[in-house]
Design goal:
A: 448 residues, alpha/beta, 7-stranded mixed beta sheet, 53% helix, globular
């Protein structure tokens, strides 16, 4: 009997709490959603900003400065080298110039170059995330920063809680909202008859959804020189660091995307987008056919009512410290090229997608659990191919302009080296240079 | 990628490598980070393909020979110790090292060890002599297809003539030292700024 009484008492105590709990949960959800709507989604629709993200960024910077200061002090006490030294070998031919006949020691020159490239080379490091000079409280970018103080570790722990407990769910919700709206609204617009109304609505819908996605990543973007924004009938080229590049550019202007049709969710998004506005999607089999690709692109740019095409000529993601070889295909078409330079600030989260290390979903989760994505976008003045310039030279000229503006290293190496082998022609060039040096002297000797 | 560097290399190992090669603590952790980034198979050793993946090394005419120098006789994998031991040859010679323990064995980056490294690039069969054939092989690697066999042959003959002192038509290590010595410091000395 007493047991039963105890049970009844217990139930009496739990029930009101139960109700209370439900009410509290309900209220907090409503509040949360209202805040979300007011502060994030509505501004996204109209393209205005409350400046919340800028404030967030400034606060974070102050915290990082303090953290770095503490780490530097700690490192000095323990006598550790903290920052990765930057190597800038010039690879000059100085040592071979004076040697005009073969000497046994000529191998030292190639030997040194070889061992230097083993210790550090210009290419392979472009395919992995840049190493930071200061720590941004994310373990993933931790190069040499060991446990220094309790306060720092607590701060890091707090960071983990905030990022995974608060920011990540918020961002994931926003991402789903943005993508969902994009698919639904573009499908609806697809039913409208072709004309100015349809184009206008399609542009607005695309912009709105991309803006929501920008907020879903807490991307803080600064656009420079917007007077040079790409116009209809042109091709916009930019350096490629991650799939987020598309979202960053497309939230500030309307572009026709180019790409291969994927399966799954990506394919669904692509198919619905093309209903509202003529994007250029290729089947896998068509991608290999260069003439077909070129034809479709040139047909598109000739139609001045269609939006400018967005292309990433590197063909693969590079880690945003350099710009690698541009594939000449988009430069052969002959329309105006609008170069755009995108530079990410790695202090808040590294945006580079290392596709051999992470899949797409994993990558997006990492992005959404970083502090923020901070980047600068420069719209460079339009360029056209000059007389007597071939596609490759034109591509290199555009690439140099982008590298200069973004503060990136301009490399001639092909981004395809991420996965493929280097062509033998480069080695043959080196051999030719060396031979010229030797043979030159032989001819002199035979003459004398 | 970066965070794996210090955690997998224990302090005792770093100390041992320090004693053996003379690299500093920070140089060792930096090179370990480089080693792991080259090790795509993530099994703690590098194969020849891992080296070939470095484009600047793949286009080096002597690339294969240099890579070979890292692998002990007949082996296909090199671990971090072996990697560091080979790289130690390229550490610049410091004056204060000469005053250290005179009984200790010769450091890896001593002048004669550097020359021995270069000698071995030529002397593939390890018979301590560079024959005309071995010299021709290296020459051919450096010039590619741009010089005819006859011309190359005469370059090789002239070189052996100048260096050979005991008339056996090949170059021994002592003869090699006399030919190669003076450039060592100009060239190998420059490695420093990669290692500070």
């Amino acid at each position: 009997l007493e047991g039963n009484d105890g049970m009844e008492l217990a139930l009496k105590y739990f029930n009101p709490f139960d109700n209370l709990l439900c009410i509290l949960l309900g209220i907090s959800f409503t509040v949360w959603f209202t805040l979300l709507l007011v502060f994030i989604i509505v501004p996204a629709i109209f393209g205005v900003s409350f400046g919340i993200r800028q404030l967030y960024m400034k606060t974070l910077l102050k915290i990082f400065e303090w953290a770095t200061h503490r780490i530097e002090r700690g490192a000095k006490d323990n006598n550790h080298l903290l920052y990765k030294p930057y190597s800038n070998g010039d690879g000059s031919n100085r040592d071979l110039d004076h040697a005009s006949e073969f000497e046994m020691s000529d191998i030292f020159y190639f030997c040194r170059q070889g061992v230097e490239s083993i210790m550090d080379d210009e290419v392979t490091k472009r395919f992995s995330a840049e190493e930071l000079e200061s720590w941004n409280l994310l373990t993933r970018s931790n190069y040499n920063f060991q446990h220094i103080s309790l306060r720092l570790t607590v701060l890091w722990g707090l960071g983990v809680v905030i990022r995974y407990g608060f920011l990540l769910p918020l961002r994931v919700t926003l991402a789903f909202t943005g993508v969902g709206l994009l698919v639904v609204l573009t499908s609806i617009i697809g039913f409208l008859p072709n004309g100015r109304m349809k184009n206008f609505l399609s542009e607005q819908v695309h912009l709105m959804c991309y803006r929501i996605c920008v907020r879903a990543l807490t991307a803080i973007i600064t656009y420079h020189d917007s007077e040079n924004k790409p116009k209809n009938g042109g091709i916009c080229v930019a350096n490629h660091t991650s799939p987020i590049d598309v979202i960053i550019l497309a939230s500030d202007g309307c572009y026709a995307m180019v790409g291969q049709i994927h399966g799954g969710l990506m394919g669904v998004i692509q198919k619905s987008m093309v209903k509202a506005c003529p994007h250029i999607w290729f089947e896998r089999s068509e991608v290999k056919d260069r003439h077909l690709v070129a034809k479709r692109l040139s047909d598109h740019v000739e139609d001045k009512t269609k939006l400018p095409i967005l292309i990433f000529p590197e063909g693969t993601c590079i880690n945003n410290t350099s710009v690698m070889m541009f594939k000449k295909g988009s430069f052969e078409i002959g329309s105006t090229v609008y170069p755009v330079a995108i530079k990410y600030d790695p202090r808040f989260g590294d945006a580079f997608w290392n596709s051999s290390q992470f899949g797409m979903v994993n990558y997006l989760l990492r992005m959404m659990s970083s502090w923020a994505i901070v980047c600068s976008v420069w719209y460079l003045p339009p360029m056209t191919r000059e007389e007597g310039e071939d596609a490759v030279q034109f591509a290199n000229r555009v690439k140099a302009a982008i590298a200069r503006q973004g503060g990136l290293v301009d490399l001639l190496w092909d981004g395809g080296l991420k996965r493929g082998k280097v062509k033998d022609t480069f080695k043959e060039e080196q051999q030719k240079l060396y031979s010229k040096m030797l043979v030159g002297t032989q001819e002199d000797r035979s003459r004398s | 990628m970066g965070s794996r560097a210090s955690t997998l290399l224990r302090e005792e190992e770093i100390e041992e490598i320090k004693k053996e090669t003379g690299f500093s603590h920070s140089q060792i952790t930096r090179l370990y980070s480089r080693f792991t980034s080259l090790d795509k198979g993530e099994n703690g050793t590098l194969s020849r393909e891992d080296f070939q993946r470095i484009p600047e090394l793949a286009i080096n005419p002597l690339g294969d020979r240099i890579i070979n120098a890292f692998f002990p006789e007949g082996e296909d994998q090199v671990n971090f110790r072996g990697f560091m031991r080979t790289l130690a040859h390229f550490r610049p010679i410091e004056d204060n090292e000469k005053n250290k323990d005179p009984i200790a064995s010769e450091p890896l980056n001593s002048r004669s060890n550097k020359l021995l490294f270069a000698f071995r690039l030529y002397d593939l069969d390890r018979d301590d002599k560079i024959s005309r054939d071995e010299l021709l092989q290296v020459l051919r690697m450096m010039v590619g297809v741009n010089i005819s066999d006859e011309q190359l042959g005469s370059i090789a003959d002239r070189t052996i003539q100048e260096a050979d002192q005991n008339g056996d038509n090949s170059i021994s290590f002592n003869e090699f030292i006399k030919v190669g010595n003076f450039l060592i410091f100009c060239i190998f000395g420059n490695m420093n700024y990669y290692l500070t």
